[in-house]
Amino acid sequence: MPRADASDPSRRSPKWQARREAIIDTSARLFASQGYHATGINELCDANDLGKGALYHYIGSKEGLLAAIHDRVMDEVMQGAERVAEAGGAPSAQLEMLGDELLEVIHRYPDHVWVFLHEFPALTGERAASFRERRRSYEQRVEAVLRAGVASGEFRDLDPWLTARAWLGMHNYTYLWLKPGHRLSARDVAKPFAEIFIRGIQSKPQGAE
Fold it and tell me: What predicted TM-score, i.e. pTM, was given to this entire model?
């Protein structure tokens, strides 16, 4: 499915794309503080110092802007998953890397992630379908790592679907407190999270209680 955009941003000039990215970032902060439905076009125009016509020139529609915020998060998350796949390694190492990559996105884009987690029900039609498809694709990446760990004997016999959701919930919840300027960085959180989670799912040596 095509990504939500305004007349295909990939074909626009770098200057146009940079302005659109700035609008996405500014609007994400506004949606995160006020909520998507409570934020009007006039407020978006004021925050971005643009008239309505100019704003629509960059975003297409308010829902298109919301979809673009979701795409920003999913683009970053999927790029991280690709880096993990390319690095390879044992399932436990891959799971730790996935957590590191995910927490880095949450830490770097707190407003975008808030909107991503709270406002996705406002997406409709193809935009909603695209979001569900991309989210499911990432979930399958996590499930595949867990499944590989079970197959290799590194992880005990578990339900990959259910375990993936436990892992996602553990990491996604950090959006409430893992912020830029916080005393903990994404990496500070990722390592102990990995140790806690992996110890809970790894196979015990034979004879161990």
Answer: 0.87
Distance between CA atoms of residues 31 and 46, nearest Å: 14
Q: How confident is the model at residue 205 (pLDDT cuts 50, 70, 90)?
A: low
Residue keyed to tokens 């912020």: 179
The residues pairing with 202 across neighbouring beta strands, listed in sequence order, are: 155
Q: Which domains does the chain have, with CATH numbers?
A: 9-201 (1.10.357.10)
